[in-house]
Design a protein that fits this description.
heterodimer, A: mainly beta, seven-stranded mixed sheet, about 0% helix, B: mainly beta, five-stranded antiparallel sheet, 11 strands, globular
Chain lengths: ~120, ~110
């Protein structure tokens, strides 16, 4: 148990649906991250939030819309996705206190998304 | 674009064997190198954070070394057990304004056969 939870664990959606992924961290961290993991590819950073402010958007298509209402919660809103968006979406958090050890990211178990 | 390479991609060993794998990363602007262990259907779990050239870290039967000048790190597992079966990821962070940002390799999938 890493202290980071994600719901749902599995999601199947059509291309016209709108859905949201939720992440919650119970570690008191100030930074939260969304990653995408596709088959045969490394983890790809999508978004970073630090103290609720978005600090990184890694050229992610606008059909993915993040929301960070507070330092403990992170959402990824999905709309009009494509089949190639099917992947594992991982959330992570870190303390980000300015030294390498606080860089350590704690991951949730991920949401396995299938877009039909 | 940062390139973090891990080899081999996958590895099958027998219980009791010792094994090692490699992570290569850019040797310039180094800040830290992280190793993670990721079991199927679970969350990636941090193993080590390494910062200094020549660093060696150990956790039970798992150890790691770091060479920042040539840009590589080795992960060693001594006397592999079936429960060591997992994907081992390394992640690099560079020295700069966004040193919180980790660039991951594709991982090495280790399978330990009983």
């Amino acid at each position: 148990e890493t202290g980071v939870t994600q719901t749902p664990r599995h999601l199947v959606m059509g291309m016209t649906n709108k859905k949201s992924l939720k992440c919650e961290q119970h570690l008191g961290h100030n930074a939260m991250y969304w990653y995408k993991q596709s088959a045969k590819k490394p983890l790809e950073l999508m978004f970073v939030y630090n103290f609720k402010e978005q600090t990184e958007n890694n050229s992610v298509p606008s059909r993915f819309s993040p929301e960070c209402p507070n330092s403990s919660h992170l959402f990824l809103h999905l709309h009009t996705l494509q089949p190639e968006d099917s992947a594992l979406y991982l959330c992570a958090s870190s303390q980000d206190g300015g030294d390498p050890y606080t860089q350590t990211q704690y991951f949730g178990p991920g949401t396995r998304l299938l877009v039909l | 674009i940062l390139n973090v390479e891990q080899s081999p991609q996958s590895l099958h060993v027998q219980e009791g064997d010792s094994t090692n794998f490699t992570c290569s990363f850019p040797s310039s602007n180094f800040y830290a190198l992280h190793w993670y262990r990721w079991e199927t259907a679970k969350s990636p779990e941090a193993l080590f954070v390494m910062t200094l050239n020549g660093d060696e870290k150990k956790k039970g039967r798992i150890s790691a070394t770091l060479n920042t000048k040539e840009g590589y790190s080795y992960l060693y597992i001594k006397g592999s057990q079936p429960e060591d079966s997992a994907t081992y990821l390394c992640a690099f962070s560079g020295d700069g304004g966004s040193n919180y940002k980790l660039t991951f390799g594709k991982g090495t999938l280790l399978t330990v056969n009983p």
